[in-house]
Design brief:
39% of the residues lie in helices and 19% in strands. It has helices spanning 5-15, 66-78, 80-84, 114-123, 131-146, 154-162, 165-176, 184-195, 201-212, 227-240, 246-252, 289-302, 335-347, 367-382, and strands at residues 40-45, 50-54, 60-61, 198-199, 257-259, 264-269, 273-278, 316-321, 324-333, 354-365, 386-390, 400-407, 412-419. Strand 8 (316-321) and strand 9 (324-333) form a beta hairpin. It binds glutamic acid (GLU).
Length: 420
């Protein structure tokens, strides 16, 4: 069978081809000369299948879509708290190139607007690093997110850097408040170069999927940034990625996203997909008109909204198995799944004293689930039950005797057997 997914995506592209509204960005002269009707769409699953349709091989400059990824690099280099001390995470409700800083702290509001992105660029490698080395780091990181080496479009870089008066104004404002300490002209050059990196929708879909996959590239398998960094970046994309249209985007489309002035948009749905669209005509917020339409349709047709309520997973079946009472846990054991398990232990206690907890059908135990399971087992043992855990994938522990906590009366560890 040929997968229907490429046909579906091609249909999404075709449906918006009759829409010629919006305007090409013209403040960077070469962007005003592109073919306005090109349209492409790509979707990458978190296990590395990429579907790309329309003008999918076309390269264009990444522009502001570079911001979340360079932000991720800064977070990985300096830690989340240190970066938060320099750039906030509050939506500004303003356009991308607003000359504004948070009152009091004088921090840029968030890393998705230019004031924040210039500050983040200057953080890479610390203040002592020379412009070329810093840019090489940025380019290498963008390449790791894409899974291939990327290049700069020198013509676009030259055109933008000679007209980047507003970005110079922002950088000097940042220098004036000591938010950056480097030469503002050098920071603008580096940032504009970062915006001029060439990508395709396939690259962008994989970059977004890397964030959606907890920082792990779906194809190369490289842990590009930590899970905590990926989660933080997705949160900031959700609240600030679409500038002054962020609230409307999150409520109606519901996918953490970032757009760029050359016509790209990425969306990353945690644990599911990375999506990227390209079409250069922009609406008044600076977002691709056809891109917004395509994302709207994907979200509607595929139930991709972040706030979509998932069907509750059945996390456990229980029953008698010879002389033991067997609990078979299933799926991903997080707080909610484990709460149901604990409630069952409490409200519907095992009928035998010997208990087998079978984790064969569990594919993941989150840290909170592990802690809750340890505590539940400890309490079952203290209630006089004999507990054995069947754990072939070693999710709770490797085979052997493990300690699940202490017996407060006898002041000794509570131990149980784990088998594979
Ligand atoms: N290079 C652009 C700028 O800073 C990026 C803006 C965008 O893509 O929204 O002006």
């Amino acid at each position: 069978m040929r997968s229907p997914i490429p046909d579906y995506l091609a249909d999404v592209v075709d449906r918006c081809r009759s829409d010629h509204s919006g305007r090409l960005a013209d403040y960077i002269p070469p962007l005003a000369e592109v073919e306005p009707d090109v349209t492409a769409l790509a979707l990458s699953t978190v296990d590395g299948t990429v579907y790309a349709v329309g003008d999918a091989d076309l390269e264009f400059t990444i522009q502001s879509i570079s911001k979340p990824f360079v932000y991720a690099l800064a977070l990985a280099e300096h830690g989340i708290d240190a970066v938060l001390g320099r750039v906030g995470v509050e939506p500004s409700g303003e356009a991308f190139n607003e000359l504004s800083l948070e009152s009091g702290s004088a921090r840029p509001y968030n890393p998705m607007i230019n004031a924040g992105a210039l500050t983040i660029h200057a953080l890479i490698g610390g203040p002592e690093l020379d412009e070329e080395t810093r840019f090489a780091r940025v380019l290498a990181a963008l390449g790791r997110f894409a899974g291939r080496d990327l290049e700069v479009d020198e013509a676009i870089y030259e055109a933008e850097v000679t007209t980047a008066h507003r970005n110079h104004a922002i950088a000097y404002m940042l220098r004036n408040h000591d938010i950056i300490t480097d030469d503002p002209r050098s920071v603008v050059r580096g940032y504009v170069r970062q915006c001029a990196v060439r990508v395709t929708v396939r690259d962008l879909a994989l970059m977004a999927a890397t964030l959606a996959h907890g920082g792990v590239h779906p194809v190369t398998g490289e842990q590009v940034v930590s899970r905590a960094v990926a989660r933080h970046v997705l949160s900031v994309m959700a609240t600030c990625g679409m500038y002054d249209a962020a609230g409307d985007w999150l409520s109606s489309i519901g996918i953490p996203a970032k757009s760029g002035v050359s016509g790209g948009i990425i969306g990353a749905l945690p644990g599911q997909t990375g999506v990227a669209s390209f079409s250069p005509r922009l609406d008044d917020h600076g977002h691709s008109v056809r891109g917004v339409t395509m994302f709207r349709q994907l979200s509607r047709d595929m139930g991709m909204h972040l706030m979509e309520v998932p069907a509750p997973a059945r996390s456990m079946v229980a029953g008698s198995d010879g002389d033991a009472w067997r609990y078979e846990l299933q799926g991903s054991i997080n707080f909610v799944g484990m709460e149901r398990v604990l409630r069952t232990f409490d409200e519907d206690p095992p009928v035998h004293d010997r208990i087998v907890i079978d984790l064969t059908r569990v594919h993941e135990i989150r840290k909170v689930g592990r802690r809750m399971l340890h505590e539940a087992i400890r309490r079952l043992v203290l209630d006089g039950r004999e507990v054995e855990v069947h754990d072939p994938d070693g999710l709770l522990a490797e085979p052997g005797t493990i300690e699940v906590g202490r017996d407060p009366d006898r002041r000794e560890p509570v131990r149980i057997e784990v088998t594979d």
